[in-house]
């Protein structure tokens, strides 16, 4: 008989074949309440899945409720089986931490629906569950107090027993790593049943997106190597699980399944060891990147690439791993400002993916992602026309593979419109942005950050098309929506304020532009610091509009204060630094009314 953790592993594996991983991350959050309804699930998505990297359209809610994770219990309510719920809560704790758990619990505490108020047991269960994640000690005291006074309570003794058991079984904040350690230790048990249960527990944990499978994979490999009976249920289950963990575990599982370790071909063991070393280096790159150690991250991925290149000479199946690592190298080089070197790496990655995709349709999404990265890099190198062509070539493939309403497809349309405008075709860009906005509002909703970004780009295209006053009006309408959805200190909100100031000046209102820039500067410096590129640019704008208001002496003083900061932060050859030097020379000359560099 399959243990509960085994059923959870099987159910999660089935779900991951049917729905994307980011929908499963929504399930992490939906696992915290006792039950959910469509209203609560919508609140969870809107509160936690509108910003990258976890962006979900509203269709994700239906996908989750109709998946094997949920079962309807009447009155529009859905619940998850306990063994599934506990694994998902481990995923929530591991992926998002205590702060997110408290946020979900507080949201649950504030949420109410008529279906709950007519069922006192359910309403109190939801309240107690929320409290247990916010203050577990207080929840326990409340339950003990209520149990002592059960005769006058609105719920029965059975409810108290059930809730006590439920809270006792609830995972703790640090349980994910502890569960792995516990399961690994059980793999060494003399009891086959205990070992099998441990394998299933690791299988369930391995199904959680973002889980570090290395400790589990290494432990399973060690178990299989040292078990003499390859046909035993625990060994067969371990081999099956290893095959689901990806490379190099799947390769090792295939090699080890029919034979003992001593009978394994030496070249297979050597290749698997090299592949494992490359995987470890990729993990090191990710850790170094997160810690801000950019040079070390680049060194790690370059070492992984060298290993994959050697393996790929005799193993064409390694080519996707090589392409992925080259894509990562390109991103790390961009982080370091080495864009021309990054271009060579991403172009090689795209070429490899193209070659492999002819016979392997499963890598086409990776090819689309790398082509998108290539187009974005070309854009940053001012190779605008090439970028537009690449985005245009990419779009039909994304529409075919991902669908026309996929967020990545819509993002490509955004990029086509933006770089069409930056190539000088702003009227055409405006038409593209307006068509995109209608689809974004339908698919993502009017408050989605991408939808709001398109409204900002419509304003930009309008202004660049020669209608600055109309652009100003569109941005003034956009600002309160961005403040409401994103917050007043969000970078996109501050960009909107900066654009309002810019187009106020372009509309012939120099005094208003100066006032808006002066008001924006302290907020920008507070959020990003005084040395941020945009903070320095705002100081340049203040000096520019000060001069345009006729205060040439004050403008000269502002430019002279700005120049050493630009030299220190941006360098003497940055175009902003050189513009400031030229503006100082103009103000020091005989004709301060000469056109400034703006």
Secondary structure: elements and pairs:
Blueprint: H1 4-18, H2 21-30, H3 38-48, H4 59-65, E1 71-74, E2 77-79, H5 82-110, H6 114-117, H7 120-134, H8 136-148, H9 157-169, H10 175-186, H11 192-206, H12 214-226, H13 233-244, H14 249-256, H15 266-290, H16 294-312, H17 319-335, H18 339-357, H19 364-380, H20 384-401, H21 407-422, H22 426-443, H23 449-464, H24 468-486, H25 491-506, H26 510-528, H27 533-548, H28 552-570, H29 575-588
Antiparallel strand pairs: 1-2
Helix pairs in contact: 1-11, 2-4, 2-5, 5-7, 7-8, 8-9, 10-11, 11-13, 12-13, 12-14, 13-14, 14-15, 15-16, 16-17, 17-18, 17-19, 18-19, 19-20, 20-21, 21-22, 21-23, 22-23, 23-24, 23-25, 24-25, 25-26, 26-27, 27-28, 28-29
Description:
It is a single chain. About 1% of the residues have low confidence. The longest helix is centred in the first third of the chain and has 29 residues. Among the domains are: 166 residues; 90 residues. It is globular. It is built from 29 helices and two strands. The chain has 598 residues and is an all-alpha fold. Helix 17 packs antiparallel against helix 18. Strands 1-2 form a two-stranded antiparallel sheet. Strand 1 and strand 2 form a beta hairpin.
Taking the alpha carbons of the first and last residues, their distance comes to 74 Å
- The outline comes out as globular
Q: Helical amount among residues, as a percent range?
A: over 70%
Taking all Cα atoms into account, the compactness measure Rg is 29 Å
